[in-house]
C-alpha cells in the first residue's frame, strides 16, 4: 500500500489499520533514515568506509522490510480479532468456539507487537553504531530515525499492554509483558547512547 493510501485507510472509520500497523510503518521510516545515513557516509568514505557501517546499512534495509511486513501482518491479525469479537454465540458450544477464536486472535495480536519491538530494538542497536560513524551533517537524520524507531517500539508496547491482560493464560501474558518491558529498557539505553554520541559530535 502506498503511503497516501495507507494514511487514508488509517484515517477512515475502519477498525484497521490501527496503532500497531502505524507503529511498524513509523519504525520502517526510522530504519530507512539509518540506512540513508550509512549509505551517504559510505559514499563519502568510499574504500575507507568501516565494515561496521556497511553492515549497518544492510541491516537497516532488512529491518525496514521486516517492519513493513509486520505492519501488514498486524493489520490482518487485527481484522481477525475484530471479526472474532463480532461473532454471535447462542449455544454453549458456540460460546466456547467464539472464546477460543478470540483467545487465538489475542495471542497473535500480542505476538506481532512483540516482534515489532524486537526489530525496533535491534535497529536502535545499529543506530548506536551509525551515530558514531555518520557524517556530522546528517546526525539530525540519525536522531530523527532513532526517535521514529523508539516511537514504533513504544506504540507496540502499548498494544501489548492492552492485549496481554485479556489473555486467559496468565503465565503466557506475564511472559509477554516481561519480554516487552525488557525490550523497552534496552531500547531506552540505546537511545540514551545515540543522543550522547550525537551531542559529542555535533
Task: Describe this protein's structure.
This protein is mainly alpha-helical and 202 residues long. It has a single domain (15-200), classed as Four Helix Bundle (Hemerythrin (Met), subunit A). The chain contains 6 helices and no strands. Residues 3-181 form the Cyclodeaminase/cyclohydrolase domain. Residues 46-73, 166-193 form a coiled coil. This is Cyclodeaminase/cyclohydrolase domain-containing protein. It comes from Aerococcus christensenii. One of its GO terms (molecular function) is catalytic activity.
Name some characteristics of this structure.
single chain, 85% helix, mainly alpha, coiled coil, Formintransfe-cycloase-like_sf, catalytic activity, 6 helices, Four Helix Bundle (Hemerythrin (Met), subunit A), 202 residues
Walk me through the topology.
Blueprint: H1 3-11, H2 19-45, H3 51-86, H4 92-133, H5 139-163, H6 170-201
Helix pairs in contact: 2-3, 2-4, 2-5, 3-4, 4-5, 4-6, 5-6
Major beta sheet, specifics? none
CATH structural class: Mainly Alpha
What is the succession of H and E elements?
A: HHHHHH
Low-confidence stretches: none
Count of helical segments? 6
- Count of folded domains: 1
Helix/strand/pairing category: mainly alpha
In helices, the fraction of residues equals over 70%
Strand content: under 5%
Outline: elongated
The overall average pLDDT, rounded, is 94
Distance between the termini: 37 Å
- Rg, rounded, reads 19 Å
Organism: Aerococcus christensenii
Keywords: Coiled coil
Coiled coil: 46-73, 166-193
GO molecular function: catalytic activity
Amino acid at each position: 500500500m502506498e503511503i497516501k493510501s495507507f494514511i487514508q485507510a488509517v484515517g477512515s472509520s475502519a477498525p484497521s489499520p490501527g496503532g500497531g500497523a502505524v507503529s511498524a510503518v513509523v519504525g520502517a521510516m526510522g530504519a530507512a533514515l539509518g540506512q540513508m545515513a550509512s549509505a551517504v557516509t559510505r559514499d563519502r568514505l568510499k574504500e575507507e568506509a568501516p565494515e561496521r557501517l556497511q553492515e549497518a546499512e544492510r541491516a537497516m534495509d532488512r529491518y525496514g522490510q521486516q517492519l513493513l511486513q509486520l505492519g501488514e501482518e498486524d493489520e490482518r491479525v487485527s481484522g481477525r480479532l475484530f471479526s472474532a469479537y463480532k461473532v454471535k454465540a447462542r449455544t454453549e458450544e458456540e460460546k466456547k468456539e467464539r472464546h477460543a477464536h478470540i483467545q487465538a486472535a489475542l495471542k497473535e495480536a500480542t505476538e506481532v507487537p512483540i516482534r515489532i519491538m524486537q526489530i525496533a530494538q535491534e535497529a536502535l542497536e545499529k543506530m548506536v553504531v551509525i551515530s558514531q560513524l555518520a557524517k556530522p551533517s546528517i546526525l539530525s537524520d540519525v536522531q530523527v530515525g532513532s526517535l521514529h524507531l523508539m516511537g514504533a517500539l513504544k506504540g507496540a508496547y502499548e498494544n501489548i499492554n492492552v492485549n496481554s491482560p485479556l489473555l486467559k493464560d496468565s503465565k503466557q501474558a506475564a511472559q509477554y509483558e516481561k519480554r516487552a518491558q525488557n525490550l523497552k529498557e534496552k531500547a531506552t539505553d540505546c537511545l540514551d547512547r545515540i543522543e550522547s554520541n550525537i551531542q559529542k559530535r555535533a
